UniProtKB/TrEMBL annotation:
Family: Belongs to the DeoC/FbaB aldolase family. DeoC type 2 subfamily.
One GO cellular component term noted in the UniProt record for this chain: cytoplasm
PANTHER family tied to this protein: DEOXYRIBOSE-PHOSPHATE ALDOLASE
Gene: deoC
Lineage, broadest ranks: Bacteria, Pseudomonadati, Pseudomonadota, Alphaproteobacteria, Rhodobacterales
UniProt GO MF annotations: deoxyribose-phosphate aldolase activity
Keyword Lyase on entry: yes
Organism expressing this protein natively: Sulfitobacter aestuariivivens
Protein name, UniProt field: Deoxyribose-phosphate aldolase
InterPro entries (alphabetical): Aldolase_TIM (IPR013785), DeoC (IPR011343), DeoC/FbaB/LacD_aldolase (IPR002915)
Matching NCBIfam families: deoC
């Protein structure tokens, strides 16, 4: 990204800031007093969540800047039973060049990439080949995604195989039953074992919040996964009937804030599933900024898990530059 320009888009997109990478969360012993003390006031959370998209109006250059920032935070995802190497190649081409050069030129921006690509284990080799020569990370959903109900030893082995195949980020799914039965020790042990299996690869803990019953369970599961060393906590697989929502996000983000306040450790956040509109991306970024500060709006601490969000962002950027919208079919993947 440019280091000299004072163009408002580049400046507001923080394109001039140096890249930094957060040290990993090493985890800490399970603290059941802390876990039991966590509550969630559902009506207060829903009230606050209801105002997030309404209070801030981001327009023109600032909107373009936020959208560019959002692109750098997308885990560009394909997670379908009919995925093929060809589809993953197209996905990776899009990750390398998510915005047409003419649009970037008009905005005064140097090339950007998405935060990562996110694929099933079997698609890792295709992604490795397609992303050669880039530093775009490959995230793999391992551990029997999306239900996470295959034998535990197989789930750990799947992580190891994904890392061996070239994934540097592993999105694991937790056992929802541990949360629903209040078995926090089992959740902690599972998460700690999965983190260990990841080795140097970063681990994102998918909570599948739509299946956890209550916001208090979401808050406690977030905390336990962070205690067990999660680098990121992630809402959903995208396959539950309810995926990322603002109330759930608020709960998870506040758990991250509480964890940081008490330990000084920064854990990342990844809302995923059903986020497909540019406007929603800006709302999420605003939420991160308001609740956690600017530091959590960079790709090492914030990602969107999304398969189609990029399409809408591209269309909005094109509209900002040219005054007209392109058809969605012109942005085939993303
Ligand atoms: O983790 C990513 C999600 O599976 C993507 O969900 P989506 O297809 O609703 O954007």
């Amino acid at each position: 990204m440019s280091t000299t320009t004072t163009d408002p888009v580049v400046a507001a997109s923080h394109g001039h800031l140096p890249q930094v990478t957060e040290p990993r969360n090493p985890g800490l012993p399970l603290d059941m007093n802390w876990v039991r003390s966590v509550q969630a006031n559902t009506s207060a959370i829903e009230r606050r969540a209801g105002t997030i998209g309404t209070r801030r109006s981001v327009k023109k250059a600032h909107q373009a800047a936020w959208l560019l920032r959002a692109i750098t935070c997308i885990d560009l995802t394909t997670l379908s039973g009919d995925d093929t190497a060809r589809r993953v190649q197209r996905l990776c081409a899009k990750a390398k060049q998510p915005v047409a050069p003419a649009i970037l030129d008009a905005l005064g921006m140097a090339p950007i990439t998405t935060g990562a690509v996110c694929v099933y284990h079997d698609m890792i080799p295709a992604a490795v080949e397609a992303l050669q020569g880039t530093d775009i990370p490959i995230a793999a959903v391992s551990t029997g995604f999306p239900a996470g109900l295959s034998p535990f030893e197989l789930r750990l082995r799947e992580i190891e195989m994904s890392v061996e195949a070239g994934a540097t980020e592993i999105d694991i799914v937790i056992s929802r039953r541990h949360v629903l039965m209040g078995n926090w020790q089992a959740l902690y042990d599972e998460m700690a074992a999965m983190r260990a299996a990841c080795g140097d690869a970063h681990v994102k803990a998918i909570l599948a919040t739509g299946e956890l019953g209550t916001l208090r369970n979401v808050a406690r599961a977030s905390l336990v996964c962070m205690m067990a060393g999660a680098d990121f906590i992630k809402t959903s697989t995208g396959k539950e009937s309810v995926n990322a929502t603002l109330p759930v996000s608020l709960v998870m983000i506040r758990a991250i804030r509480d964890f940081y306040d008490r330990t000084g450790l920064r854990v990342g956040y990844k809302p995923a599933g059903g986020i497909s509109k540019a406007k929603d991306a800006v709302t999420y970024l605003a939420l991160m900024k308001e609740e956690l500060g600017d530091r959590w709006t960079r790709p090492d601490l914030f990602r969107f898990g999304a398969s189609s969000l990029l399409t809408d962002i591209e269309r909005q950027l094109e509209h900002y530059v040219t005054g007209s919208y392109s058809a969605a079919y012109r942005h085939a993947v993303g």
